[in-house]
């Protein structure tokens, strides 16, 4: 007999509303900003829109073959007791539980079935099963038996004998599914308890199974020692909303920041909060991997501060030197490392070895540097061109800083008698004669936490690049996506988490990780965290729903130590102009309100809300900073102009290069003469683009073609006014080339290239592309946030950034979780809106769960 799964009504209502919201989406979402052009391959687009079913497998129990001996045994439960325990079974409905109806049961079948009487035991094939026994349940042919906890026995009004199963899921039954070459990450004995229950005939029961409940532990070896003799074990529950893997006890908390923890007394209330964990530490440390210019960590710190937690970005890592310069300029308190994440992980491991060596060195009383034994006369007689003395060590890295194709551990050396121009990177084995200097450097770095050690990091955030899933990559590895070097950083990100063991993890990525190859990379990331015994959940959030005039849908994966609260997703604060289609299969993870509550949100922001106060500039504007030349015209502009000292959660002091009250980066990418002439010819009206240029006609099929009755117009250089690439782009159907954005519109996604050739990025009323500052505002960067590098590099930093208000919203829910102030529900309402929340003097806020 086929049976469906059952969810709680709140989750079901929430999911339904999400699917309604999805169906209202109006246009195709812009792709990952690594390639900011429209898709030209219809096959690839079809794959992107197809999506993947992320819901768990439905448990369809099947009767045992043949004449199965099954019956309810013992005396019935007294009627009054039965009605008290299972009131929905005795509602007096004229329900017969006919076979036809049972085959088409809804998710609410638990309440539909009416009972004649309840029992505490049943016998199947001579074996007695009691309430709360665990059992294998017959599945469809060629499928492994299901696993269930028996939570109810009863005889229906139709005379049939039933049991209610609360299902356990194997990893492959959840959205993690079968990870093919990486399935070994999960212990085959490990299962997950769900809250899904449904009713089946008792002759679906196959046999008993011994399932042990195990305490969660990030130390997998220690956990293995605690597993008793059993067939299976579980240490987490799986919940359908937002594909949540959570600890079984919701009222546990960590007493300190060390690995060892204790569990508070059980009280039974799922909404109970933890003690104020913020009392444990004066601040929380954040490591920002693939940090770019620091947008996500900046937002997280602002949001956490708004919740009462002082979250500080202690370390940041990125391979782009200009992005690192920007982050360091705006966050002088952060140790910013311009290196590959792979090298950073190697460095952490080598640094740990040096710390151990330092402890041995100090315990032995230390050894003098051999060079210190030499007297001054010896030094004077030595040719300085032949002997160099180390004055001190300035830095450390792992890699190949000298480009000699020899990666390893290197130290930056200041030589005695020489200035900084003569500093060099020297390998560790080249410093064997200056042990004291080496140990001094390690000792100082250890005290200052130059590099994090396991247990030092409270939260790791980052968006590992996964260009291998892009629909524009024609050579994607569909058989093993993780073998693609363009997806390798996801493995590195997870390896760093495994090594440092932070309390919390937040991973951001493009929606394509849930579309390519049956969502393999998304499932792998989720599976990695769960295999490391982290709680986890996944959600999709559009930036426009949090107070910026941009759609920008992104995926966010939360992870939490098993003894911490799992952070929630913040519900939208603003209506959003939909600029993307999300397949309905993703309804479970879209962060959204239902239709009724959505109508009470703040109105969607548009371009005019964000940039109308900025002074007019020309195509060749070259000033990096200038006065505003006017007052703010909207509330958004008022708050986005706040000085650094007026914004909450911003650490460090203002440097001399960040003059208060000045407007930074209001410069556009300078168009070449041909493109500038083309842009000048685009009418200053809504919807204007290359189709408005002379000589361009549009057919009834919406495909452009040239007017053959007139000479083809030229620009001054002799090239065509309307380039061939504009006519051919997306088969002649696109309106994006040389398109003007308009005041009452939004940008679908701020991308990394300010090219007008294949996107609408021309200013509404000026003959130029949107400036660096204008796009920064669309991403929610406060105006004091200054960017470094050539103009092209500044656009890249902004296009690759996480929208700041999204980071703020997530930072607030992180802070709530740290203090144990959140419930079990995956969604919560924010008590503030962007950009008001930036202000240091804003009112105190309280958070409200959405149930």
Overview of the structural elements:
- The structure is a single chain.
- The protein is of the alpha+beta class.
- Among the domains are: 56-212, Bromo adjacent homology (BAH) domain (SH3 type barrels); 277-340 and 455-596 and 806-849, Vaccinia Virus protein VP39 (Rossmann fold), CATH 3.40.50.150; 343-373 and 389-448, Beta Barrel (OB fold (Dihydrolipoamide Acetyltransferase, E2P)).
- The chain is built from 21 helices and 29 strands.
- Strands 2, 5, 6, 7, 8, 9, 10, 11 and 12 form a nine-stranded mixed β-sheet that branches. It has a seven-stranded mixed β-sheet with strand order 15-14-13-19-20-22-21, with helices on both faces. A three-stranded antiparallel β-sheet has the order 1-3-4, with no helix packed on it.
- Helix 7 packs across helix 21 (804-818) and helix 9 packs across helix 11 (435-448).
- The model is unreliable at 1-52, 98-109, 251-279, 368-378 and 843-851 (pLDDT under 50).
Task: Record the SSE blueprint.
Blueprint: H1 9-23, H2 42-50, E1 70-73, H3 79-85, H4 99-103, H5 109-112, E2 115-119, E3 121-124, E4 127-130, E5 134-137, E6 146-156, E7 161-170, E8 190-201, E9 205-208, E10 211-213, H6 220-226, E11 232-239, E12 244-247, E13 284-289, H7 295-307, E14 311-318, H8 321-330, E15 335-338, H9 341-363, H10 376-381, E16 390-399, E17 408-415, E18 424-427, H11 435-448, E19 459-462, H12 488-500, E20 504-509, H13 520-531, E21 535-542, E22 553-560, E23 569-570, H14 595-598, H15 607-611, E24 625-626, H16 635-640, E25 663-664, H17 673-681, E26 696-698, E27 704-706, H18 724-728, H19 772-778, H20 791-799, H21 804-818, E28 827-829, E29 848-849
Parallel strand pairs: 8-11, 10-11, 13-14, 13-19, 14-15, 19-20, 23-28
Antiparallel strand pairs: 1-3, 2-6, 3-4, 5-6, 5-9, 6-7, 7-8, 11-12, 16-17, 17-18, 20-22, 21-22, 24-25, 26-27, 28-29
